[in-house]
Design brief:
The complex is a heterodimer of chains A (about 120) and B (about 110). Chain A has about 120 residues and is mostly beta strands. Chain A has no helices and eleven strands.
Chain lengths: ~120, ~110
């Protein structure tokens, strides 16, 4: 299957700081990438849909000014958690959808980023 | 409103047994139904997926059964192994480009040796 990477895999930061998470599709182009959040022993909750070259679409209840998403190229999307607080501590996972050369719906997930805000 | 309902929440199966996880969906516009496997601290990995024009798909020990009229689909893991112990998520989405997956709540499978 296609490979999606995330960086960093783990980050610990102080309350009030901003954290940037990168999501890259390594061997395919992805017009659309998705950002999910997962709390312990829970399912994946969609935060936003990131489209290359346009503004992200956020799910209801997700603060767009707090979770900044940039999808500047067909292989890179970034999520910036601004002014992070302890309640933002979670497992953040991105996925990328194959836009050419494969089934149109297949989504491949990154390994996730564990964010801990002290 | 939960669009994809998954059961059971947890499952314990003996080695060599059959693990069965069920999902039901509500939106008839869904036309892609994947199953993902997730180990602790890792991202989900695509296991197998099915479209509504077939009733069953098999890949190795993993089989999806799909019942379009009942709006249900299930994952069968044959000859379950301890290495299959993980959390399994069903999901559904529409075919249109840019639509996200809607996930079930997950099933934690433990295969005892």
């Amino acid at each position: 299957g296609a490979v999606v990477s995330q960086h960093p895999s783990r980050v610990i930061c102080k309350s009030g700081t901003s954290v940037k998470i990168e999501c890259r599709s390594l061997d395919f182009q992805a017009t659309t990438m998705f950002w999910y959040r997962q709390f312990p022993k829970q399912s994946l909750m969609l935060m936003a849909t990131s489209n290359e070259g346009s503004k992200a679409t956020y799910e209801q209840g997700v603060e767009k000014d707090k979770f900044l998403i940039n999808h500047a190229s067909l292989t890179l999307s970034t999520l910036t958690v601004t002014s992070a607080h302890p309640e933002d501590s979670s497992f953040y996972i991105c996925s990328a959808r194959v836009t050419s050369g494969g089934p149109s719906n297949e989504q491949f997930f990154g390994p996730g980023t564990r964010l801990t805000v002290l | 409103q939960q669009q994809v309902k998954q059961s059971p929440q947890s499952l314990i199966v003996q080695k060599g047994g059959i693990s069965i996880i069920n999902c039901a969906y509500e939106n008839t516009a869904f036309d892609y139904f994947p199953w993902y496997q997730q180990f602790p601290g890792k991202g989900p990995a695509l296991l197998i997926a099915i479209r509504p024009d077939v009733s069953e798909k098999k890949e190795g020990r993993f089989t999806i059964s799909f019942n379009k009229s009942a709006k249900q689909f299930s994952l069968h893991i044959m000859d379950s192994q301890p290495g299959d112990s993980a959390t399994y998520f069903c999901a559904a989405s529409k075919r249109q480009a840019g639509t996200a997956l809607i996930f079930g709540k997950g099933t934690t499978l433990s295969v005892s040796s």
